[in-house]
Amino acid sequence: MSEEDRAEAVPSLSFPDEETVAAAAAPYRVLARKYRPSSFDDLIGQEAMVKTLSNAFDLGRIHQAYMLTGVRGVGKTTTARILARAFNYELPAQGGQPAVTKPTIHMPELGVHCQAIIESRHVDVIEMDAASHTGIDDVREIIESIRYRPVLARTKVYIIDEVHMLSKQAFNGLLKTLEEPPDHARFVFATTEIEKVPVTVRSRCQRFDLRRVEADVLVAHLAAICAKENVAIEPEALALIARAAEGSVRDALSLLDQAIAYATGAAGTIIMAADMRLMLGLADRGRIIDLFAELMAGDIAAALTGLKELYDAGADPGQILVELAEFIHFVTRLKLLSGNVDDPTVTEDERRRGGEFAQSLSMPVLTRAWQLLLKGMQEVKESPRPLAAADMVLVRLGYAADLPTPDEALRRISGLGAGAAGAGQAPAGRSPSGGSPRAMAGPGGSASARQAAPVPSAAPMPSADASLPTARLSTFEDVVALAAKHRDIQLKMALERDVRIVRFETGSIEFSPRPGASPQLAQTLMRRLQEWTGARWMVAISNEAGGPSLTERNAAAAAAALQGVRALPLVGKVLDHFPGAEIIAVRNGEPAAAADPSSGNSAEDEDVAYIDQAFTEDDL
């Protein structure tokens, strides 16, 4: 067979070009690496830091060391590499454009060293992981090598990630070099736990706190990446990913990578929100709201059934409680901010139903539900049977939903009826009668009851008054206040506790010391008064029995006040209804206004309003 016949018999073979072979051989790069920002223009959510660095580079005020801190995935290492690019950005003259030969953060295209820095293979940009290089020997290598000038670039850059993992000796060894590095060297540190970095290191660095990325910015960023990857995804699914990422860009991109692999089975498939809930172990938000409504209505059987259905659908019991708590927080914010809550991850249905709950539920009910869920989440986390633990949390929450608030409990005990009980729905921080704030009011009875049986008040403790005259002290309380003014706390406490006054005159004090008092108390007081007033005082110890000390007088007044409160009829009813309850303390405040006959409120009603100001939910 001739060569020509052989050539015709052999079929022609076609070989792929080099680009096709390279694309087929290249390993897949995860989205978090593929779309990692390479310049400050690509960095999202850190506008304050970018503006500061931009102005610093434009003015030539480039610091020797930078400390980048923040939660995981907000761009600390990425920012460090961008800074390394900016320190060493060089661009030869081309197309009539002048060459770039000085540091700048304006990098419209890749410079001479940029690609190597981005790929972490530049000889003059040294990246060190402090988690695996923690000792003084690793820092000693930096100290020895920093003396030599860069090999290729303009600046030698040391990037130390997780710098808080360095040992104490390593930090101490770095201090001198960090404070006075050579002109050709820069340090960039990154850490998630800034409080573990010694203050001596922090004070030598310019610190930037990278913020969590806002949900709306993160959703827009994910949507742009999905468009580049030709992935169709529902906006609600993007909102779920952004909510689960908690402000971390890397977490969001990792979840998006997982979502594409989970939900995209064929061409043209759209990633649905339901797919995201299954993948993340989340419950349907509408079902969570239904569960909350059942609990607030006290329908525990329906709530337990709903929890089991959510569990069978793949939702984690602990995550269900977390989402319940998130919805309670959302309703509370709606209530306090009058519905002005801007959150792109919240749907219109959630906003509408949350507004209805904000109108119908009081603040005590919402805060009580929050506390029960907060405790319940920890129980579920520690329980070997999470579903059973979550069931019991919902049982407690359902039974507590219709429990009266402290003011309502007082009204029911006093027998004022359902009409007066409605007055318990008062704005936060004010009494049902519209009186003074709760925190400033004290216990007592009605106006008539207080006139008939006044409640003794504790004697006020001396206070350090800046305007107190130092030359003329008319009472012993003025002397104690003077000691407090001059911050002699030891003497002030001794005067209150150990001094029983026999006679007091301006310039002369005679007292009987309490057993156990310091024998030097009289001399110390005499010396201090002469220093503070500029006049001579005579301080003597008497054998006569003096009056009670200030501490004893205050204790007696507090006991009398406690006895007076116990004598109030309404307080007696409370103690009868709660066996074992005790009155711990009496807080004095502004008494409620006297009962007005024209208002239709009885003296007992005013009594309840006054006492309600002194009780919080924790008190009961």
Structure, briefly:
This protein is 49% helix and 8% strand. It has 620 residues and is α/β, with parallel strands linked by helices. Among the domains are: 35-209, 3-Layer(aba) Sandwich (Rossmann fold); 215-280, Orthogonal Bundle (Helicase, Ruva Protein, domain 3); 285-400, Up-down Bundle (Zinc Finger, Delta Prime, domain 3), CATH 1.20.272; 476-549, no CATH class.
Query: Which architecture name of the domain at 35-209 does CATH use?
Result: 3-Layer(aba) Sandwich
What's the oligomerization state? single chain
Uncertain regions: pLDDT < 50 for 5+ in a row? Answer: 9-15, 417-471, 591-620
Helices and strands: which structural class?
Answer: alpha/beta
User: What is the CATH class of the domain at 35-209?
Assistant: Alpha Beta
At the fourth level of CATH, the homologous superfamily of the domain at 35-209 is P-loop containing nucleotide triphosphate hydrolases
How much of the sequence is in beta strands? 5-15%
User: Order of strands in the sheet with the most strands?
Assistant: 2-3-4-1-5
Query: How far is the first residue's CA from the last residue's CA?
Result: 109 Å
Number of strands: 10
- What percent of residues adopt helix (DSSP H or I)? 40-55%
Mean pLDDT: 79
Query: CATH topology of the domain at 35-209, which one?
Result: Rossmann fold
**Coarse morphology:** flat
**Biggest sheet: strands, sense, closure?**
5 strands, parallel
Overall radius of gyration: 37 Å
Q: What is the helix tally?
A: 28
